[in-house]
Amino acid sequence: MALNAADCREMITACKQANRMLSIGYRLHFEPHNIEVMRLGQKQILGKVTQLETANGFTWGGPPTWRLKKAMAGGGGLMDMGIYAIQGARYTLGQEPIAVKATQEKTKPELFKDVDETVFWELEFPGGFKSNGKSSYNNNWGYLKAKTEKGFFELEPAYGYGGIDGRTSNGPMNIPNVIQQALQMDDFANCINLKKPTRVPGEEGLKDMLVVDAIYRSLDSGKREKIG
To answer: What is the CATH number of the domain that holds 45?
Structure first.
């Protein structure tokens, strides 16, 4: 949504003062495989989630561009790809994390001298549950995997614009792929026309950036950092 949580708050305030609706481009909230993950996790269809891992990344194969310049991109693989993995953990559980511990590695420091390459984090949720996540500009990842009291469910690929695939301990999800942005934009148009709340308001983006800010603080401090 923005470079940090403070910027998110400014955007939310500005839209409220201007009496305008603010919606974040979180297309996966309209994608049926990810919607099914929300249902399975939040409603505990296969029992409580006992283990959760999310990861997103790709291998950077081009020359240095704006994406690798912190002043222009805000951050590296975490800001670009990790946001999907953070979202995945949040909407699978339907809970907000309260703390995070993060580490990172740089196998190509000459290329990623200004931004993060690969980041690993452990999100702590109310009640003590912890999920593992990771993001990268040097690994081809894209999955969400949950173990539950009665089985499992997972998506891989999980976050792309097409080709998303899912399965559970009961078998394949057998859900068709869709044009995600079309569903997202149609829904926002309906929210405007009908004057109803959007499912992905600015506050949703703010929640993610609070996590991202805490991860970067943890990378600097080497310690567990509270979120918010």
So the answer is: 3.30.360.10
Q: Which two tokens stand for residue 163?
A: 């080709």
What CA–CA distance (Å, rounded) separates 152 from 167?
8
The answer to whether 143 touches 153, Cβ cutoff 8 Å, is no
In a domain, 27, yes or no: no
H helical segments located in 155-224: 180-194, 202-221
Q: Please state, in angstroms and rounded to a whole number, the distance separating the CA atoms of residues 172 and 168.
A: 6
Tens of pLDDT along 56-99? 999 998 888 999 999 999 999 999 999 999 999 999 999 999 99
How many domains, the chain? 1
CA angle 71, 74, 79 (to 5 degrees): 155
Where on the phi/psi map is residue 100: left (φ > 0), alpha (ψ -120 to 50), or beta? beta
Separation of alpha carbons 33 and 144, rounded Å: 11
Domain assignment of residue 80, given as a range: 37-175+202-226
Helix (H, G, I), strand (E, B) or coil at 187: helix
User: Which tokens in the block code for residue 30?
Assistant: 């309209």
Number of Cβ within 10 Å of residue 151's Cβ equals 14
Q: Are strands 130-136 and 49-59 parallel, antiparallel or unpaired?
A: parallel
